[in-house]
UniProtKB/TrEMBL annotation:
It comes from the Bacteria. InterPro entries: HAD-like_sf (IPR036412), HAD-SF_hydro_IA (IPR006439), HAD_sf (IPR023214), PGP-like_dom2 (IPR023198). This is HAD family phosphatase. SUPFAM superfamilies: HAD-like.
């Protein structure tokens, strides 16, 4: 690409913060069977992507999930919707890397497919105070892996795509970033390998 990496753009879910729908569902139910029902109606539903896209509201998501659950689980659903972000915890090693990279002069950004309550989750990330900017799908009505959202973050923060490394746990999202002209790294949990990739491209 003829340019070295000067900016690292992190995904949120399962990169900076954990996201585990089956686990969250289990916290608000009493049996594995009920947890599976809640997971399928909420986090595992296609409507969850529409919530992240900004095209439906939390109220619509709730009504849809209620329709797909027995009435006895409606209180569990409401509690889960209200409180699941409390159980999304920082992935400390990635946050530490982001903070170190910021201290070395890299630009640090976040690009996430998430709903309008994103700060209830991202707000727990230790790296957040060091972030130079972030873009959230629900706010923009654009979602990864659409190359348009990668172009938008570059336009918004005056970044050259060729200077950016995008980090995501979803390979399709990495492909979208590459189409937009960025470097991309598919994160599978190996932080040392991620850091080595940053160094290699810098």
């Amino acid at each position: 690409m003829g340019s070295s990496v000067k900016n690292v753009i992190f995904d949120m879910g399962n990169v900076l913060m954990t996201f585990d729908g089956p686990y969250f569902s289990s916290l608000f139910t009493d049996t594995p069977e009920d947890a599976a029902l809640l997971q399928d109606a909420l986090f595992g539903s296609t409507m969850w992507s529409l919530l992240d896209s900004g095209t439906i509201s939390h109220e619509t998501m709730t009504r849809y999930a209620e329709h797909h659950l027995p009435e006895r689980l409606h209180p569990n659903l409401h509690a889960c919707i209200a409180r699941w972000p409390d159980y999304s915890v920082p992935i400390e090693e990635v946050n530490d890397l982001a903070i170190r990279l910021k201290g070395e002069g890299y630009g640090i950004y976040v690009l996430t497919n998430a709903n309008t309550r994103v700060m209830e989750q991202l707000g727990h990330a230790p790296a957040l105070p060091y972030v130079d900017g972030y873009l959230v799908s629900a706010d923009e009505r654009l979602m990864k892996p659409d190359p348009a959202i990668f172009r938008l973050i570059c336009e918004r923060f005056d970044l050259n795509p060729a200077d950016c490394l995008f980090v995501d746990d979803n390979e399709d999202n990495c492909i979208g970033a590459r189409v937009a002209g960025m470097h991309a790294y598919h994160f599978t949990g190996n932080v040392e390998e991620l850091e080595a990739n940053v160094r290699l491209l810098s």
